[in-house]
Amino acid sequence: MWDLILAGRYLMIPIALCSLVGLAVFFERLFVLRHGRIVVPELVSTVETLPRASDFSVAYAVCDRHPGPFANLVRAGLDNADNAWEITRDVLQETGRQEGVRLLRNLRVLETIAAVAPLLGLLGTVVGMIRVFAVVSQAGLGNPEVLSSGISEAMVTTAAGLIVGIPALVGYNWLESRAQGIVFELEVYATRMLDTLRSRRQRLGAGAV
């Protein structure tokens, strides 16, 4: 195995770096994008019980106990509960957009690695074939050792680039799908919370009259 890696020569270094960075990003996002860590059941219950809440002290306490994207969204709604409905809506939309960007953060790195690693392998193929043709032009076909060295460099880097790029692409698509699913769920709860706050404000306004 080590001989095969050495056969790929210097272009194996950036391919190996792509592999290490891709693994780091994959496991970091895998840890962050755990559904139970973001869509906390206690926060879901808080949103569902807001219509019956006399104040927001309990909701704020739950947000403090479970910091994260969902808590930030709920807190943004609570902070603007007394504002006009349009203002609350805009704040929730902006907060949701910001949290969505944070959830998708670093996934572009994985997508870039999925595209770049095979290209680095292709570059290694081109360089290896250039070496082969250079040897052939200078010494003819009488030096099989040098010829095999160039061909090995061409083949090994291509294989290495695909070995890194294919899992990176699969991991990117899977994690992006997971992140988008969580973002969609947060949007659903944000809409539900907006309707609740609007109804609560209308009820309080009617009671004041």
Give a brief rundown of this model.
The chain is 85% helix and 0% strand. It is mainly alpha-helical and 209 residues long.
Number of domains: 1
Distance between the termini: 81 Å
* SSE arrangement, N to C: HHHHHHHHH
Overall geometry comes to: rod-shaped
Q: What structural class results from the helix and strand content?
A: mainly alpha
* Proportion of helical residues: over 70%
> Which sheet architecture does the biggest sheet show?
none
Let me know the number of strands.
0
Mean pLDDT: 81
> Low-confidence spans: pLDDT under 50, at least 5 residues?
none
Oligomeric state of the chains? single chain
Radius of gyration: 27 Å
Count of individual helical segments:
9
Which band does the percent of strand residues land in? Answer: under 5%
Could you explain how this protein is built, in words?
By secondary structure, this protein is an all-alpha fold. The protein has one domain (2-208). Helices cover 85% and strands 0% of the residues. It has nine helices and no strands. The protein is rod-shaped. The mean pLDDT is 81.
